[in-house]
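ok so i was messing around last nite and threw this chain in just to see what happens. nothing serious, just curious
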Amino acid sequence: MKHGRSTGTAGDGRAYCLYLRASPPVECTPLTDTAEDDRITGGARFHGLRPWLNICAFCLSEIDASAMKLYVCRRAGFWLFRSRGGRPLRLISTQVRLRQGAFRARLDILWLLTVFCAIGVAVRGHAATVWVESPDAETAAVTRHGWYSRLDSAHFSGGNWVSHYDPHRPGELSYQVEVPQDGLYRLWLRVNPSHSVMFYRFGDEAWRRLDMSDPIDQVNVAADGSLDHRFLAWIDGGERYLHRGGHRLSLRMEGGIANSGIVDCFALTTNLSWVPRGMARPGAATGLAEEGFFAWEPERWRSEQASVLCLRHLNEESAGQAGFVRAQGDSLVLGDGTPVRFWAVQADSLLGLPRERQRWWSRRLAAYGVNLARFGGTALFEDWMNGRRQRFEAGLDQYHALVAALREAGIYAYIGHLFWHTHTAVTLPDEVFPGFDGSKAVALLFFSERFQDYYLAFLRELLTKTNPYTGLSLAREPAVAFLEIQNESGLLFHTFNPTGLVEAERALVERKFGDWLREKYGSLARAQAVWGPNNYPHTISMYRELGEDDLESGRMRLYGIAHMRDESWARRQRNHRRAGDQLQFMVEAQRSFYRRLRAYLRDEIGVGQVIVPSNWTTADERILGALEHYTYTGADLIARNSYFGTVHEANPRFYRIEIGDQYHDRSGLRVPESVSPLHNQTYLGYPFMITENNWNRPNRFRVEWPFLAAAYGSLAGLDGWLFFALGGDEWDSVPRVWGINDTTVLGQFPAAALIFRRGDVRIGDPVVHEALSRQHLFALRGQAMRPAGGLQDPLYRRLVESLPPSEAVGLEAIDPLAFLVGRVTREVGGDAEPVNVDLGPYIDREKETIDSTTGELHWNYGLGVATVNTPLAQGATGFLDKAGRIELADIAIAGDNEYGAILVVSLDGRPLASSESILVQAATEDRTYRFQTEQNENGLHTIVNLGGYPLNVREINARVSFKRDDLSRATVLDGNGVPADREAALVRREGEMTVELPSDALYLWVR
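result:
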């Protein structure tokens, strides 16, 4: 069914929607989409309607304007305008006159605007909310249990709760609720969503089960922080029309673990756009903040229209409108050839959300500068493989819905995580491959053509089914820019160990190796003669159980990838020539696999997307890193996942932050050699993207991350940078290892995204180019340049912790700080000549500074401060109080905070020296309210309280001086970039204009 929309703003500046219920005209053409900015003041287009409609009902309800549209459908002899949720609304009667045109009739409702605004103000001014604490139950048939008595009362709205735990009977609560006025209400309940099943009903209606699949603002409420099933979250109970007066609401806990459940409170509100946050009631903020911090509680983001910071204009009107994104040399371009860079987020949390919320999130992300969202499909492959058709179809529908929502906001989709060998348990019929009944397939995808065909059959079904929301299959959808073959998987990682392979898989690889050796040497005996007799795999204790080479059956034993490392123990134990042959065999197999899949996807399925092979690291980046990326040249793009972490100990669940965890805060600004995500050696002739990245929590030094990604990602000429990972709530109220929904990351997107996507920082001059031969690499000689080692992705550390400790290799042949000077590139088997520029003019180890070849970036790692200094963007990040007054071309920064970031960017595209619209963006550090640690004897912080809502931000104490005297206003913007009702004073002094940044706001609009 087609749809249209009629939305507008009333006198309070909020968005409202007009709902209409009309008697039927003669047969009408369905409504069509209106333009994105069609608002009530501009009219709403209705096609094919007769001049008169008898309106028997209308109302104004506060909504998220561009996330809601109107549907018209035939119901029992009348036409009914409905919202996306299908809610009929009725209030009063009137008539509306239509001016008729030859083909199109346009509803002129300007004359109704005054009436509608008055009603809208009334509705907004008298939004009704009923808030009920759980202990206020009229009746309670529950069984208390000591398990639920040990909860942190600070997380509960009234400081208390009602719980039930009884395997023999359900628990029930009944509340008498007094509704103050007629209206459409949404029910929100703050209950335990974990291993709990709950039902509710009004009056004597049938019980309705609460859908716990989309918990909002989930928090662990166990007093000791134990991870069990004691959680609280807000659950949406849906909408219903209630009349003024008394209503009985009953809750029932039945199912789950021992019929258990926790109830904190519930709310009924006519503010349908309200989304709960902690204990804050509709229209209110808690204001809870520790000393020296302020509470981060901006109103819910509503519309890109009102925000000064909105970057929606950087995106296309509709993603893919000009055709598929494609690789062009070592860059990416849109369908019309326009160069493009991607500022991206991992957005798995958006899958499965109601379509209204997907649209809301998509519009919000676009406003923050995002033009690419990546989401994974490991579960899709697992469901397809195990014959769970209904779940597969439901998951694919979630994919389709999200692609459609993103497309509307001009955001491209990146489909990834379809296969992930460290996470995907493979169960296969014997005719595909025997021996797999829930095991991890490390090498199967590369060596078994039957399994490859099986995987391709999955991709065919995934990619060729028509998307009901767009009318295109994913393969034909230009709004899908990237298709990833597998995530964090490859033969050159630590997981390749023959003793850990399924027997049938090991036999397959050994035979394939034997076939490869026959082709190279003529016979297996000849291969052994070339190698010499020493240090075969069976002579090494860890492989001895596998036995000697079996020449008769053609099975040649394998080293684990650990024996390819540049470690003295590995070099002593292996046969060097044999190890080199095995390495060549594995690399060629991996690259050939990617070439085969790319050809099939292009030629057989018709896929138009950029094909991404994988994105993983290796067992030894110096020896194997260049080869891993060389295998990616079998497809279209080089990708890399890389993280910057801190010491995070005493937690077997590396993906969670828990009470008792130990860590230390760590800034990369003082240790530039260790900031692996910035050490990117791009590949000549291929685009390069960071497809996962985070400055992992817990760590208070994170605000440098978006700043450095934008500045040094641009310097390296990267085509995209992805922040891992978007959460499900608006702003984080629990600490997450890979969270970005906070002021230090998502809150820093506006200026950072603008710098990166607009190209404010120029690509650096080439300072290092490595031209490597395949023979050199297959001989395990490695490369001179490599990313930093040390702390990596927690998954990486977990998988390698059982290996012998790594040795210090010594100084690199090329200074690793070159990555921060200019562009560092490589090529395997090409014709380009090596480049190794003298870095002396750019790196001063005595002063501990690094300058870029462009002159726009400066890094003082002695102080721990980095600056960007371009015509359109200037700023600094790091330990600002140590730096004193920071002089840049058009501004000066003086910060009294120990640590923070300040970016000043032109919003109108003119140089800062003459810009008439300037954003000053600042941030320090953030943490959840009541987050608490204790320092232990080894200098690490031990977490004793995880805290909760609201997010607290350390107060900002800094000044920015503009080296011009023609600026007149500095307007404080709220957390959504909307002008607040206050100004910061601009003080003119000696030809400069200085502004003291507000202590409790991230954004200042200067003009």
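not much to say yet. The two ends are 46 Å apart (CA to CA).
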